[in-house]
What we know:
By secondary structure, this protein is α+β, with helices and mostly antiparallel strands. It is elongated. The protein contains 21 helices and eleven strands. It has three domains: 1-148, 2-Layer Sandwich (Beta Polymerase, domain 2), CATH 3.30.460; 248-358, no CATH class; 370-415, no CATH class. 49% of the residues lie in helices and 10% in strands. Magnesium ion binds next to loops.
Amino acid sequence: MNKPESDSQESSSRLPACSAREAAVAVARLIIERGFIAYLAGGCVRDEILGLSPTDFDIATSAPPDEIIKIFRGVRGVGEAFGVMLVHWKGRIIEVATFRSDGEYHDGRRPSDVRFANANEDAQRRDFTINGLFRHPLTGEVVDFVDGQKDLSNRILRAIGDPSARLREDRLRTLRAVRFAARFEMTVDSATEQAICDAARDLCGVSRERIGGEFRRMFSHPTRLRAVQLIEQWGLDAPALNESNSIGSCARIAGLPREVSFATVLAAWRLDRATRSPDHTSQVWRESLNLSGIESKEMMEILEIVSTLGSQWDNLPKSARKRLASRSAFSSALKVLFGVAPDRVRGIQKTVEHLANESGGLAPQPLVSGSDLIALGFEPGPRFKVLLDRTYDCQLEGEITSKEQAIAFAHQEWKR
Ligand code: ATP
Ligand code: MG
């Protein structure tokens, strides 16, 4: 019997010794050498045909899981019932899935059973034709059972088979459709589009973790504006966000730079939608999109700063402007504001630049600290924090420039 192939560099701390593609091809070659079919499958084939660099390379094979275990040493089952195995190869992890055909879907998420099948059946169970392609790892030949190449070259997103049935099987596919249509700038086939609109409300039943994951992926891409437009146009916003459908201006989303945090996009979207649905709360979005505490805090901070910039900035004293400008979410808030008030943003940036050039900059070290004051005999208490803040404000205003002055000011204030 043949010995399993070992991953000679299994240590995860080491850098991978080959590219993800090289690892996938090497793994597929070994499977083929044992007499099975093995193809590169799905997203990686699509991305390569589009001239993009795939992030991950998956393999679909006729070899059942027990054969994969015999061939490779570093194998971990992740969905053995579905025939999905993870093969460790030279510091890389390659997903290897046995060709399968999905049984009935009862819960709008997963098939009740799967049956190992041939390559054609495996292509048919996938969601969109552009995702149903295979490529022979050694010859490079594209194996296409679903007319995916034609749709790719015409930039058409089309469900494989009956669109309504496909979208009912896994309700997340409506959001996946948005992501692919936006990211690859595709026209959506009309039957597929109709089925998406019909199935939109069913998104309610999908786990918030999966919905949040799709939004993260969509919004991290510069094509997020189209994604938002499709979400609102197809009525996916209501079930995704647990609020009523609203078609906003998207002006703030449109004005964002290419690279921004997820929380920044959410803040922009929230304000773009606010005119029609002002009643939503951060808590609802947090739960609906499964946001982390850090993400929702960042989103709320951006919203708070944008609101201050809109209504109070012009009347704020220098110290308050410096405090605001040194908050971590300040630059994100400006990005959100840019789409609706570019001149105002430029003006604020100029002022902040000017303030940053003053001695000490926007956030100088305080001239006196809490422990300085305690050492001088001040008693910690509610007034103590106010006193420290006031002293620091005077420093930011440039009215106090030395430690001696700061201490004298603190004494004088304390007596009042
Ligand atoms: P990405 O570029 O984001 O990785 P992808 O298409 O590669 O997109 P994956 O989640 O990596 O998506 O899945 C790989 C392949 O598995 C897809 O191309 C598709 O063929 C199939 N697939 C994934 N999720 C689904 C789904 N929910 N329904 C049907 N097929 C799916
Ligand atoms: Mg992928």
